[in-house]
């Protein structure tokens, strides 16, 4: 570091002397810079520590994301997807990542879908069917993954890991949840042994109760929570109005059945329908706490129950370069951590620092966050605990406004994050996606938009130049 | 004529001596103060610049030169003291084909011998100049006489063994690689000399550019008195270059952000053109040997311009 500083100082001085020559004759060796009367001191960069400097070299075996799309997110049972089969939600996004990039469907090595609520075997089948609906040949395998609320992110991370391991070069990480068809419920009886293990018993707590626990244990007030909710709605509404989601939302052609008349209507859903732009603190203050007497967690400051799907196409940088596909971002790191199940919402506060460290960065390097707003209580706590700049978190709203289709959320956040980073350009280099996980866990992943993903990238095919000398032909 | 936007700050631009549409551009991040470097190879097509390839380096690049012997070989001067050889015909992972770490400070310039075509020079802020060949991993010789940064070393276009060097010690020295010491010493300016170049038609004529904002022309046989002095730049002159096509034409660029064209024989005003197309320090220029009047420049504003003499570089 000292060496680096010296080098910087030397270079600055040599250049400064060209501009403002101190002495008419130079008779000094370069080594003797420190003794110079020309004082050049290193000072912190005005752009802050998170300025867009590369921290890693770009390698051809980096795992990069070349496409990330989602469906609109609609309210369960009442929203735009209430009469849509889950496979019909997933198929459009799977199709989109292939079609927009021009990757051939048969080149995809695996499709991993995060999904939480549906029965495992049935969902695995539905995902396989969705792949067929999306036009994938039978040769492309499909599997599901369930890490509760982070399933979508886990799917992306699994694909990244498999590509790194060399299992295949191109893969799709996706997420799917239809909370219309699969409501949250416990099937069968509970093992009576939970009485003997507090942690195991805490796993059975309804999520809302864990939110109350976070609010109580860490002192997050009702006002703060409601304020977070208002911000979420306002930002989501502004982003929708500004057309920011247009880059990431794939319209879904589906049907709506009128509950009274039973009439079927063909519709195209391309807008999130959970956002309430007019939400005010006063409105939210009227709502009753749901999970606890005198509690603070209300329907207004919790995430919405939703339907939605998202998909992310990953490949080796080498493959992207060969195919001439512009890189959207680089997958840098992923961690999942465990926390106390009674306050499962604190997951991101533990996971984010670990993921950032694993990427060789510091928290201040991160320019943008997507932290899932399962509940305003835990979201507010995590942001405060990590001392994050509110202007960098969920800049386009979060799950309180958009909705939280459990299995899809991770992939949805990835799509939102990368598209926003792309919009922000060079100044937004590193981004984090994180969420808390029911039964007491947290997950976080770090993404980078490196120098080669800028529009000035060298990611273009060298079509008719084999770079051999003319004599070699 | 087209403009190319580089990701980093431009430091040097060189036309290929083999392909008239090909250029090499050496760039450095953060104005070459700190960060990495990137060597671009660009092709000029009717649709503008097309990057042929680019090589990333851990430290900034300050200069580059094409091999006069093999159209695919390119040499870059790096801020970490290394001289890197690239082979465009080799796969990307094989590059650099040779990395020569001998200078103890930033390498400021590299120049390929255009008579013998088998060797090249590097000059460095460690006050030395080194002579290299493609085959030998070690330098053949170091020329140690300057007492401050050597900003430029350039071969004589007629004599295979003679070169000139410009240094921050306010001298230009003329060397013959067969001799142990420098043969001439020109105390050319009162301030640091940042660049020099040989006239392509007069083996004794040399031009130097200095921090004192002036450009001076010399007959190396008479080091006490310059032939002419060209005034017009308002800040230090960073590069000077004689035309390969016209004896009296020369080009310069400066920290005043302009690129100037001069005719030292012009009776009234030697300044032919002052081009203000750059918005930051103009630090790299070149004149094509294959196409008469085709000029190139690069600057800290992350742009590369190529234009025909007499035209406005910004004219599309």
Helix content of chain B: under 10%
Whole-angstrom Rg of chain A: 25 Å
Mean pLDDT of chain A: 88
Low-confidence stretches of chain B: none
Report how far apart the termini of chain B are.
Answer: 5 Å
Form type of chain A? globular
User: How large a portion of the residues of chain A is in β-strands, by DSSP E?
Assistant: 15-25%
Shape annotation of chain B: globular
Notable traits:
heterodimer, A: 473 residues, alpha+beta, 10-stranded mixed sheet, two-stranded antiparallel sheet, 13 helices, 33% helix, B: 316 residues, mainly beta, 4-stranded antiparallel sheet, globular, protein transport (chain B), WD40/YVTN_repeat-like_dom_sf (chain B), transport (chain B), Peroxin-7 (chain B), peroxisome (chain B)
How would you describe this protein?
Chain B: InterPro entries: Beta-prop_EIPR1-like (IPR059104), PEX7 (IPR044536), WD40/YVTN_repeat-like_dom_sf (IPR015943), WD40_PAC1 (IPR020472), WD40_repeat_CS (IPR019775), WD40_repeat_dom_sf (IPR036322), WD40_rpt (IPR001680). Chain B: It is found in: Cytoplasm, Cytosol; Peroxisome matrix. Chain B: It holds the Pfam family Beta-prop_EIPR1. The complex is a heterodimer of chains A (about 475) and B (about 325). Chain A has about 475 residues and is α+β, with helices and mostly antiparallel strands. Chain A has 13 helices and 12 strands. Chain A has helices spanning about 1-20, 85-100, 120-135, 150-165, 200, 205-220, 220-240, 280-285, 315-325, 345-360, 375-385, 400, 410-425; strands spanning about 65-70, 75, 110-115, 140-145, 170-180, 250-255, 265-270, 305-315, 330-340, 370, 430-435, 440-450. In chain A, the strands form 2 sheets. In chain A, strands 1, 2, 3, 4, 5, 8, 9, 10, 11 and 12 form a 10-stranded mixed β-sheet that branches. Chain A has a two-stranded antiparallel sheet with strand order 6-7. In chain A, strand 11 and strand 12 (about 440-450) form a beta hairpin. Chain B is globular, with a radius of gyration of 18 Å. Chain B has about 325 residues and is mostly beta strands. Chain B has strands at about 5, 10-15, 20-30, 35-45, 50-55, 60-65, 75-80, 80-85, 100, 105-110, 120-125, 130-135, 140-145, 150-155, 160-165, 170-175, 185, 195-200, 205-210, 215-220, 230, 235-240, 250-255, 260-265, 270-275, 280-285, 295-300, 305-310. Chain B starts with a strand and ends in an 8-residue tail after the last strand. Chain B has no helices and 28 strands.
